Amino acid sequence: MSRDVTGTPQTSPPVLAAYSYCEAVTGQQAGNFSYGIRLLPTAKRRAMSALYAFSRRIDDIGDGTLDPESKRLRLEDARTTLDRIRAGDIDEDDTDPVAVALAHAVRRFPIPIGGLDELIDGVQMDVRGETYETWDELAHYCRCVAGAIGRLSLGIFGTVPGARDAARAPEYADTLGLALQLTNILRDVREDAANGRTYLPSEDLAKFGCSAGFHSALPPAGADFTGLVHFEVRRARALFAEGMKLLPMLDRRSGACVAAMSGIYRRLLERIAEEPTAVLRGRVSLPGHEKALVAVRGLSGYDARSVHRQTARGRV
Ligand SMILES: CC(C)=CCC/C(C)=C/CC/C(C)=C/COP(=O)(O)OP(=O)(O)O
């Protein structure tokens, strides 16, 4: 590894190009998460982009139009890439920029890369068309596809020296991932139903008369769809409140990144709570200026405090 006059390791041109590729993928595709990632200092921002680009690839295999067997094979290829990264087998001249960037990030930060195997396990559950009877079963899926991303990200953020309760940081990062994923599931209920997928626990659907599913812009006849959404919103709020205990353990810019990511999704959740049937008509989203505002507030610590205030008032 080459170093500059101060002895700081230099990142080689091929690795820089690989990171640029991942940052472009993040900028183009991470409609919500890019606001937070942009707040990080360079090395962490690049590492988060590598993580995002690899995760996006896995997700896209699951969501794509290939037949299940081809998806399975593509996911196994991704697992092989992870094995090669673990074995130190990816050099900077490799033709896959995402693998080059991720391999560099894994050398630089203590990223628990097994989390990406969990992500692949979760997407394989999707490919097999698994459904979930209970919240515990759905939580296991969410832990694979989102909790793992929280724990992987924590490897990049690190915790500040002397942080109280730092041993619990991975647990909180995992819980925040669950909060985000449950919000995502509520937001995408219609799109997933159109693709033949239902993530919400069947015992919850039954409780609110929604077992027949929701394939149109109208709530199912006789179902308490609003009651179902409010039930899941309460669960997601509690997960956010628990997961946000991570924030005081992070340095300012990592905290800002997490506050922005969580803050944007937390607002989405409240938008859904205000008008549950909106998710049956289309994808609920925030305008760009609102996401930017949440991100800026994250940088000043505003949203973190506001979440704590809401928790203290018993809002969750
Ligand atoms: C500690 C920490 C950083 C925790 C957060 C972990 C995290 C970022 C989990 C991702 C979960 C999620 C909802 C992915 C959806 O991606 P998508 O591409 O479908 O999202 P979009 O459609 O909203 O853009």
From TrEMBL:
Protein's name in the database: Squalene synthase HpnD
PROSITE patterns on file: SQUALEN_PHYTOEN_SYN_1, SQUALEN_PHYTOEN_SYN_2
Associated pathway: Carotenoid biosynthesis; phytoene biosynthesis
Molecular functions per Gene Ontology: geranylgeranyl diphosphate synthase activity; squalene synthase [NAD(P)H] activity
InterPro entries reported in the protein's UniProt record: Isoprenoid_synthase_dom_sf, SQ_synth_HpnD-like, Squ/phyt_synthse, Squalene/phytoene_synthase_CS, Trans_IPPS_bact-type, Trans_IPPS_HH
Key words of the record: Transferase
EC number(s) per entry: 2.5.1.21
An individual GO BP term: carotenoid biosynthetic process
